[in-house]
Write a structure and sequence with these properties.
InterPro entries: DNA_glyclase_Znf_dom_DNA_BS, Endonuc_Nei2, FPG_cat, FPG_N, H2TH_FPG, Nei2_N, Ribosomal_uS13-like_H2TH, Znf_DNA_glyclase/AP_lyase. The protein is of the alpha+beta class. Helices cover 22% and strands 20% of the residues. The strands form three sheets. Strands 1-6-7-5 form a four-stranded antiparallel beta sheet, covered by helices on one side. A four-stranded antiparallel beta sheet has the order 2-3-4-8, with helices on one face. Strands 9-10 form a two-stranded antiparallel sheet. A hairpin with a 2-residue loop joins strand 3 and strand 4.
């Protein structure tokens, strides 16, 4: 599932392509909103909130969530559209296509943030507050760290890649209880820093080494040697999300 940095970058690309432009076509291919037509309206805001994305057009707000397979693509208006398209937005120059979006809804602009009222502080947003995020993180001290990090009500934007990398950097197993974290605020700040440096990168990096094959500590590296101690990385794919850890560096 795309994480907060990916959604932030997607919003940036849509903003560059659509901001200030008048829609010449608005084709919503979701039955509930199939009659909505924003043709003639001006796109005046595009923003991300955690893993959610909003395109605000005239009186409406197009709210989407990529879920597992969704994407927004910017093409020319001559580009053919296949069956996976859930929405097509044209201007005189470009076409924005929302493909396989997990969530797509057209909301009243003044009430669109009701859809994300459950979210914790946005790691890449103006509302970021490390103290609030830390308090949310430790609200249930017996909860596994990975479960808490993935809960968007704690802080918005962390997905499975960052979750595994943060557990490694904290020195704890993903299954360790939140109470094991000595400095939860530091972990929250580290999460924010990690997403912030990746917000405009095409190739995500958590190690500080952007060379191919060196970008992550543990995620996706099952059986490979830990970059710190050389111990083979373990993994567990029995749950909803795959977990990766170093049994020596993480306790």
């Amino acid at each position: 599932m795309p994480e907060g940095d990916t959604v932030f970058r997607t919003a940036d690309k849509l903003r560059t392509a659509l901001l200030g432009q008048t829609l010449t076509r608005c084709d919503v291919r979701v039955p509930r909103y199939a009659t909505v037509d924003l043709t003639g309206e001006v796109v005046d805001e595009v923003c991300s909130r955690g893993k959610h994305l909003f395109i605000r057009v005239g009186p409406a707000s197009i709210h989407s969530h990529l879920k597992m397979d969704g994407a927004w693509r910017i093409t020319s208006t001559s580009r053919r559209v296949d069956y996976r398209a859930r929405i097509i937005l044209d201007t005189n120059d470009v076409r924005a296509i929302g493909i396989d979006l997990g969530v797509l809804e057209i909301l009243e602009r003044g009430q669109d943030e009701d859809a994300i009222s459950h979210l914790g502080p946005d790691l890449l947003g103006d509302d970021w507050d490390a103290d609030v995020a830390a308090a949310n993180l430790i609200a249930d001290p017996d909860r596994p760290i990975a479960q808490a990090l993935l809960d968007q009500r704690v802080m918005a934007g962390v997905g499975n890649v960052f979750c595994n990398e943060l557990c490694f950097l904290s020195g704890h197993l993903p299954t360790a209880p939140v109470s094991a974290i000595a400095d939860p605020r530091r972990l929250a700040v580290r999460a924010r820093d990690m997403l912030w440096v990746n917000r405009l990168r095409a190739n995500r990096c958590t190690t500080g080494d952007t060379r191919p094959g060196r970008q992550v500590w543990v995620y996706g590296r099952r059986g490979e040697s830990c970059r710190r101690c050389g111990t083979p990385i373990r993994w567990d794919d029995s749950g909803e999300r795959v977990a990766y850890w170093c049994p020596s560096c993480q306790r």
